[in-house]
């Protein structure tokens, strides 16, 4: 999209390092590590699976095979999202070419991360088995010390979508795993260059990008969105309102912002959405990011050039539950430090 103008630099291996607190709950004769490296893997997860198991239960061929099933599911999710996007812009009579991958995505997305892990590692499910059904994981922590560690380590992308395994759709887990399976990269220069360089392409196609512009409301006429009312953000509430109309209006904000701020209050869908007896969706969790600018080269400053993921426990659902119940008494379930 930047027409080759945006440069990227690969993160060194390991691109991610996952760190857990010291834990003595191990099976006899098994290693007891608390750091796990994620390295670039061009073998669809086979190399990564073996590297992880070497630090948890080396030589366990059954778990290695099931780890590969877990990794392959990520590529299926990734292909499913690609097919879903293609289906949106493909003529209806060609949808049958994409339906299989989209249906597989919908099936896997209906399962939680916790249940998929239980099916694969506790019940020995294959991918074809999961297309038929997915058993519900029993409540409580994983009793097997090996599986407890393995499940927690394989859940490391949870930091990207920040929903505990019991509640998270496997679609979020799969697309994140697939995205980073072949490593990670960062921008050369400020990250703001991405939007600047991509917006120039949009302008070449006759589009326009408006900055410092807040959408106040979506204009609805005859039951469909036809435009937006926009205010200059820096001018505050006294800023002039501008009406912008278009053939198609795409709302990329949350469903809560859509119904609570952007749609007219008297719209039927707004009234239904605000009725909590009918609404099943809940707001997602907030995040806190602190961005620090450090002068100098990484080697010169002796700082790592990979991401650090800290998890408060191998029992992830319990860690989330305890933190939500009392965020003062318990540490956050996960903390992420990104480099560079």
Explain what the structure shows.
The chain has 13 helices and nine strands. The protein is an alpha+beta fold and 340 residues long. Strands 3-2-8-9 form a four-stranded mixed β-sheet. A hairpin with an 8-residue loop joins strand 6 and strand 7 (241-245). Helix 1 packs antiparallel against helix 2, helix 2 (61-88) crosses helix 3 and helix 2 crosses helix 8. The radius of gyration is 23 Å and the shape is globular. The two termini are 23 Å apart.
Which labels suit this protein?
single chain; 340 residues; alpha+beta; four-stranded mixed sheet; three-stranded antiparallel sheet; 13 helices; 9 strands; 38% helix
How are the strands of the biggest sheet laid out side by side? 3-2-8-9
Q: Name the structural class.
A: alpha+beta
Mean pLDDT: 91
> Which ranges are low-confidence, i.e. pLDDT below 50, for 5 or more consecutive residues?
none
Helix content: 25-40%
Oligomer: single chain
Number of strands: 9
Detail the topology: elements first, then pairings:
Elements: E1 8-10, E2 16-19, E3 35-38, H1 46-54, H2 61-88, H3 99-109, H4 113-122, H5 127-132, H6 145-154, H7 158-161, H8 170-180, E4 185-187, H9 192-204, E5 213-221, E6 224-232, E7 241-245, H10 255-262, H11 268-273, H12 298-301, E8 307-311, H13 316-325, E9 334-337
Parallel strand pairs: 2-8
Antiparallel strand pairs: 1-4, 2-3, 5-6, 6-7, 8-9
Helix pairs in contact: 1-2, 2-3, 2-8
């Amino acid at each position: 999209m930047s027409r080759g103008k945006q440069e990227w630099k690969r993160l060194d291996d390991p691109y991610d390092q996952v760190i857990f607190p010291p834990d003595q709950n191990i099976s006899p004769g098994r290693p007891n590590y608390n750091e796990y490296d994620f390295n670039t893997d061009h073998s669809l997860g086979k190399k990564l699976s073996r590297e992880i198991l070497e630090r948890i239960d080396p030589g366990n061929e059954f778990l290695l095979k099931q780890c590969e099933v877990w990794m392959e599911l990520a590529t299926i999710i990734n292909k499913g999202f690609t097919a879903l996007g293609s289906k949106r812009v493909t003529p209806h009579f060609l949808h049958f070419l994409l339906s299989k991958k989209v249906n597989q995505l919908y099936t896997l997305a209906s399962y939680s991360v916790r249940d998929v892990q239980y099916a694969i590692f506790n019940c020995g499910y294959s991918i074809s088995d999961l297309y038929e059904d997915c058993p519900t994981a029993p409540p409580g922590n994983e009793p097997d010390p090996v599986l407890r560690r393995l499940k927690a380590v394989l859940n490391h992308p949870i930091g990207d979508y920040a929903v505990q395994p019991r509640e998270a759709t496997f679609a979020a887990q799969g697309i994140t795993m697939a995205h980073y399976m072949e490593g990670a990269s960062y921008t050369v220069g400020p990250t703001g260059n991405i939007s600047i360089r991509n917006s120039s392409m949009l302008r070449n196609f006759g589009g326009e990008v408006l900055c410092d512009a807040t959408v106040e409301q979506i204009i609805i006429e005859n039951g469909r969105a036809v435009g937006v009312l926009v205010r200059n953000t820096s001018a505050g509430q006294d800023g002039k309102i501008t009406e912008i109309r278009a053939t198609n209006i795409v709302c990329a904000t949350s469903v809560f912002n859509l119904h609570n701020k952007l749609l007219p209050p008297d719209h039927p869908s707004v009234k239904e959405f605000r009725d909590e007896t009918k609404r099943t969706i809940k707001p997602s969790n907030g995040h806190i990011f602190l961005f620090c600018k450090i002068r100098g080269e990484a080697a010169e400053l002796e700082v790592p050039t990979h991401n650090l993921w800290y998890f408060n426990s191998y029992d992830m659902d319990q860690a989330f539950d305890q933190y939500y119940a009392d965020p003062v008494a318990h540490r956050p379930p996960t903390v992420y430090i990104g480099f560079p």
